[in-house]
Amino acid sequence: MAREQKAVLACVDGSARALDAVRWAARDAALRKRPLRLIHVGENADCLAAAEDAAAVPGVEIRSGTRTGHPAERLIEESATASVVVLGSHGLGGFPGMLLGSVAGALAAYAHCPVVVVRGAPPEDAPVAAGIDASPGGDAALAFALDEANLRRVPLLAVHTWTDMTMGETWSVLPIDADYGAVAEDERRLLAERLAGWREKYPDVDLRPVVVRDRPVRGLLTAGPDAQLIVVGSRGRADFGGVGLGSTSQALLHHGPCPVAVVR
Ligand SMILES: Nc1ncnc2c1ncn2[C@@H]1O[C@H](COP(=O)(O)OP(=O)(O)OP(=O)(O)O)[C@@H](O)[C@H]1O
Ligand SMILES: [Mg+2]
């Protein structure tokens, strides 16, 4: 199947949060001109009717269905043929104080396509924010963020954070007499170089580089406090070669105020 035809997949468990995810997915499918696939894993097929109502956006073809088995396992399988998979941050289970449901967490770590975990309903004209580091996987996240900003006709904040911890051959701390002004200047130049090619590919996007001296999570949240979507890669530079999620992505999924996209 050509990538262009792959559906946007929204996961439905009968909860109100899942309906938020369905509405986000329906708008995304409309913007991307792709079909919308609604899947429920379990016995409660009735919950798909409410989801279809929530998804009714003119021009979007909806296919819905149920699957049996372990929800996270089935949905990870389904993600292999989706362009993006969208879930609520919570569902019907959980407990007070739980910050992220287990199905949402499993998909964010193991899905075969980009994952959007929906939380809140930020204004549609708010900017998209993307976390940019030097990792090779970062380009996929940046491309996803540019697509979203382009389709939504909103600015993209390309946020690069740095601290006095640097990663050369090994992790090290900048010397005490380091010229922080010069380091900041270097970081700004590196970010500008990183973005240059993308500006040509997406001439219509208002692409705004933001360099902050802070740790990634706090830097991203302070640089784009009112973002409608925060886009991050699944792993940063400290990639130990495994699957799963890096600490920045995990922290944003737990604490982010808005939908978070994890792109691998
Ligand atoms: N059985 C399911 N079928 C389809 N989608 C599901 C299913 N269960 C959860 N989801 C999706 O995952 C999202 C998060 O739900 P999740 O199950 O992770 O959290 P929870 O129910 O609050 O906690 P937990 O199940 O871990 O106790 C839901 O909003 C929905 O999008
Ligand atoms: Mg659940």
TrEMBL record:
Top-rank taxon, per record = Bacteria
Please name the SUPFAM superfamilies in this protein's record.
Adenine nucleotide alpha hydrolases-like
InterPro entries recorded: Rossmann-like_a/b/a_fold (IPR014729), Universal_stress_UspA (IPR006015), UspA (IPR006016)
Pfam families in alphabetical order: Usp
UspA domain: which residues?
50-119, 129-264
Q: Which family does it belong to?
A: Belongs to the universal stress protein A family.
This chain belongs to the protein called Universal stress protein
